[in-house]
Amino acid sequence: MFRRMFLSMTAGAAIAASVMTPATAAGQDIVDTAVGAGTFGTLVAAVQAAGLVPTLKGHGPFTVFAPTDEAFAALPEGTVESLLLPENKDQLVAILTYHVVPAKVMAGDIAGKKAKVLTVQGDRLDVNARNGVKVDGAKVVAADIEASNGVIHVIDKVLLP
What we know:
Residues 27-159 form the FAS1 domain. It contains 10 helices and 7 strands.
């Protein structure tokens, strides 16, 4: 059921970039900004299933590397459904918190640099902003979507710790 629902969402990262401008997103927290974009249904469902909504609505600041619905749909068949099961909550939390940095990192802060950035999950992400921006091999397709408690960078793949 989840896979069919998420596969039916076809809006891409370009829509996310046009819907979530700094002017419209800045008054909303990260969760509300993601919900309002309409391209992060799978991510929002996963955040809810993991019990992370209160955290991502908290003070922050946070940087969230947000995979689109298309990125989740590219995972092997059954992966999303499996992760959303209550018995897999710990694994889901680990994956989601691997997408979150406990600081506000704007694109300009890392432009032209390479870095290893500590995540909320505890591991480090490889960020390469020397030729475009890639995070652990995922391409940042829209950057600097500001929220009241941080920033969202849209990525084209789900990051796995």
